């Protein structure tokens, strides 16, 4: 990416954060993923990353996440949440930013030396099984540790 294209991209990123509070970046890769930039700055809650779901579902989960938690003190981790999408329950897990250095490039550039945090949305396969359950069959890549509360 040449300097002018890169500058235009980051200008647009900053504009979207100013206008909408954050930007979602969808990356088409062998295992696609979507991640936010700006949520931590704007709403003081962790950014979110979602692996292997279509862009529209990623946007729904991210939008609902921000709406649900932007005014709350605590975000429940490793617990099933049924309001982030109407399709299935979603768990939120903590992800060390160091695990994401090859993924969240826009966030790394945007925040530079400022601290920021990430959570990952973890969801079931088409049979309703989560990654720790027998028979789980989906290509979701886990960036953090998924230990659901029982």
UniProtKB/TrEMBL annotation:
Species: Hymenobacter saemangeumensis
Superkingdom of origin organism: Bacteria
Name of the protein: DUF4262 domain-containing protein
């Amino acid at each position: 990416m040449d300097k002018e294209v890169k500058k235009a991209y980051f200008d647009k990123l900053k504009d979207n954060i100013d206008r909408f509070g954050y930007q979602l970046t969808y990356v088409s890769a062998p295992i696609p993923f979507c991640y936010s930039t700006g949520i931590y700055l704007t709403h003081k809650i962790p950014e979110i990353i979602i692996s292997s779901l279509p862009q529209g579902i990623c946007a729904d989960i991210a939008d609902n996440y921000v709406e649900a938690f932007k005014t709350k003190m605590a975000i429940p981790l490793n617990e099933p949440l049924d309001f982030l999408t109407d399709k299935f329950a979603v768990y939120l897990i903590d992800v060390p930013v160091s695990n994401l250095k090859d993924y969240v490039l826009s966030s790394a550039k945007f925040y530079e030396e400022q601290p920021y945090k990430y959570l990952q949305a973890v969801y079931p396969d088409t049979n309703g099984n989560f990654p720790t359950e027998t028979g789980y069959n989906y290509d979701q890549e886990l960036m953090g540790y998924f230990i659901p509360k029982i």
